[in-house]
Write a structure and sequence with these properties.
The protein is an alpha+beta fold. The longest helix has 29 residues. The strands form five sheets. Strands 1, 5, 6, 10, 14, 17, 18 and 19 form an eight-stranded mixed β-sheet that branches. α1 packs across α14 and α8 crosses α9. The protein has 14 helices and 19 strands. It is elongated and about 115 Å long.
Length: about 500
C-alpha cells in the first residue's frame, strides 16, 4: 500500500510539473496590458452604462453612473430571482372551451333493478342478501354484521359448492321482452340483445352501448337519444330492507363505454310510476402531469381500455387480494382462480379491511396508487321527473299491455336519456409558464434594466474566464514554490525504487 501511495504521489507531482513547464512558455501579460484589456472591455461591452463610468471625467458623474449600474444590476437580480421562483412553483391556468360538433358519441348507460333477486329463489334463503353484500364489498364499503356470522358458518358447511355468482346470474334481475317493454335509440328500435350483462353491487345489470360494439353509437340532433320502458315486476323481485334496499325502481349510471360502471354514490334512481328525463352533456377534462398537475401518464391498466381512477382501484384491490388469498373475486378484473364463499368470508373481507386500513390502494395525488387520469370524460346530468302516466294514457297502456292501471303505476318505469346540446365542454389545465417564456422574461428584464442580451452574457463570461486564466498563471509562476516539488537528494533513490516496483 505504501508503494502504491508513492506511485500516486509521484504521478501527481509529475502532472503539476508538466503543467508548470507548459505555462512557463505562456508569457504573463504585464500590468499595463491587463489594464488596457479591462479598459477595452468596459468601453466596448454591450452592457449599458459601464462605458459611461470609464469614459466620463467628472467624479460626480462617475459616482452617479456607478449607482445607476449597481441599482440596475440589483433590480435585475431580484426580478430574475422572482421569475425563477414563480416558474418552480409550477403554476397552471385552466381554460374552458365549448366545441360544437355535427354529431357526438353517445355514452354507455348501465341499468339495474333496485330489487336484486327473484322472490321465489330467496323465499327460504334469506342469507343470500348477506352473502351478496360480502361479495360486493370489493366494490363498495360494507360493514359485516356479526349477527349473521353463525348463520353464515352453518350455510357454508352445508353448501360448500354453492356459487353466489351463478345463483345471482340465474335468479337475479333479467332483461327480456317482458321486462324491457319498449326501447328506442334515435328513432330506431333496440332490443334486449343490444345490452351487455355485467355484475355490480346491484347484482345483474345491463349496459347499453357497451365497449364491445364494432361501432360507437352517435347522435346528430339534440333532444333525441335513448328511450326505455321497464317493467320491474315488483311481485317477482325483492330485496332485504335491513341492508338499505327500500325503494322500487330502476337505478342507472351514465359513463364512458371504455370505463366500468360505478354505482357507489353515483347512480341515478327512477321510482316506479315516474317518467325520468335525463339531459346529459359531455365534459372532457385534461390535467397536466406532475409537477404541474397530479396525473401520471406512465400508468397503464392491464384489463381496461383507458385509465380511470375507479378502474385502477379495482385492479389494485385485485392484485392485493390475489397475492394474499390466492384467488380473485369475480367482480374484479383479472385472470385467476375464482374465490369461493369460504375464501370471501375468511380471507377476502379481512384483506379488504387491511387494504383500507394500511392505505394500500389510494387515489388522488400524483404519488398515490391511483392518481387522477390525465384525460377524463364525464357526463353531467340534469334529471327531471313527471308522473307516468296521465289518465288517458293509462287506459291506453292498460289495454295495450293487458295490465291493470294499478299494475302500471306500481311496476312501469319510463326513462329518456338525451343530449341537451350538440357540443362538448373541454376543461384543460395548462402550464402557465413554459421554458421559452421563462427565458423571454429573463431576457426582457436584462434588456430593460441593463440593455443586455445573450451576446452580453457571453462577453462577460469571456472576460471572467480570461482573468481567471491569468490568475492561475500568476499563482503557478510567481507564487512561492510548492513544497515537495524539489525532491531531496536522499529520497531520489527510494522513489526510483518505488517506481520500478509499481
Amino acid at each position: 500500500m505504501k508503494q502504491f501511495g508513492k506511485c500516486i504521489g509521484f504521478d501527481a507531482r509529475g502532472l503539476l510539473e508538466k503543467m508548470r513547464l507548459y505555462l512557463t512558455r505562456k508569457p504573463l501579460p504585464s500590468l499595463e496590458e491587463r489594464k488596457k484589456f479591462d479598459h477595452e472591455f468596459a468601453t466596448s461591452t454591450s452592457f449599458h452604462g459601464v462605458h459611461n463610468i470609464v469614459q466620463t471625467r467628472s467624479k460626480i458623474r462617475k459616482v452617479l453612473w456607478m449607482l445607476v449600474v449597481l441599482g440596475s444590476i440589483t433590480i435585475v437580480a431580484w426580478q430574475i430571482w422572482n421569475r425563477f421562483t414563480h416558474y418552480f412553483s409550477w403554476p397552471t391556468t385552466t381554460s374552458i372551451v365549448v366545441q360544437y360538433v355535427e354529431n357526438i358519441e353517445f355514452p354507455a348507460v348501465t341499468f339495474c333493478n333496485v330489487n336484486r333477486f327473484q322472490a321465489h329463489a330467496v323465499a327460504n334463503l334469506s342469507i343470500i342478501f348477506f352473502l351478496w353484500s360480502i361479495v360486493s364489498e370489493v366494490l363498495h364499503a360494507f360493514g359485516i354484521d356479526n349477527k349473521f356470522s353463525q348463520e353464515l358458518k352453518d350455510f357454508l358447511q352445508g353448501n360448500q359448492n354453492f356459487s353466489i355468482k351463478e345463483f345471482t346470474r340465474n335468479n337475479g334481475f333479467y332483461l327480456n321482452n317482458s321486462t324491457l317493454l319498449e326501447c328506442e335509440f334515435f328513432g330506431q328500435p333496440c332490443y334486449p340483445e343490444d345490452f351487455e350483462h355485467v355484475f355490480t353491487e346491484y347484482g345483474n345489470c345491463f349496459t347499453f352501448n357497451h365497449m364491445d360494439l364494432p361501432a360507437r353509437r352517435r347522435v346528430s340532433v339534440s333532444g333525441r337519444g335513448l328511450s326505455l320502458l321497464f317493467d320491474i315486476k315488483q311481485a317477482q323481485f325483492t330485496d332485504d330492507p335491513t341492508f338499505g334496499f327500500l325503494d322500487a325502481g330502476i337505478i342507472y349510471v351514465i359513463h364512458s363505454p371504455k370505463e366500468p360502471p360505478r354505482f357507489d354514490g353515483l347512480g341515478l334512481s327512477t321510482p316506479v310510476g315516474m317518467h325520468a328525463n335525463a339531459a346529459i352533456s359531455q365534459l372532457k377534462t385534461v390535467i397536466q402531469e406532475y409537477p404541474w398537475g397530479e396525473c401520471n401518464p406512465n400508468i397503464k391498466l392491464q384489463h381496461h381500455k383507458i385509465y380511470s381512477t375507479y378502474g385502477c382501484l379495482q385492479e389494485c384491490k385485485a392484485k392485493h387480494i390475489q397475492a394474499k388469498c390466492g384467488c380473485l373475486p369475480f367482480l374484479l378484473p383479472g385472470n385467476g382462480t375464482e374465490c369461493d364463499l369460504q375464501k370471501f368470508y375468511s380471507c377476502v373481507s379481512p384483506a379488504l379491511y387491511k387494504i383500507e386500513l394500511m392505505g394500500l390502494c389510494t387515489m388522488g395525488t400524483h404519488n398515490s396508487t391511483c392518481p387522477v387520469p390525465c384525460e377524463e370524460t364525464d357526463y353531467p346530468t340534469t334529471v327531471t321527473y313527471s308522473s307516468f302516466v296521465n289518465e288517458k294514457a293509462l287506459q291506453f297502456l292498460s289495454t295495450k299491455l293487458k295490465r291493470s292501471p294499478e299494475y302500471i303505476r306500481e311496476n312501469l318505469v319510463y326513462i329518456d336519456i338525451k343530449y341537451h346540446d350538440l357540443n362538448y365542454k373541454m376543461t384543460q389545465q395548462q402550464k402557465a409558464l413554459s421554458v421559452s417564456e421563462l427565458l423571454a422574461n429573463v431576457g426582457g428584464q436584462l434588456g430593460l434594466f441593463c440593455g443586455a442580451s445573450m451576446i452580453t452574457v457571453i462577453e462577460i463570461v469571456e472576460y471572467v474566464f480570461t482573468n481567471f486564466c491569468w490568475l492561475c498563471i500568476f499563482l503557478l509562476l510567481k507564487a512561492p514554490e510548492m513544497p515537495q516539488w524539489n525532491i531531496p537528494a536522499q529520497n531520489e533513490q527510494t522513489d526510483k525504487k518505488g517506481i520500478q516496483e509499481c
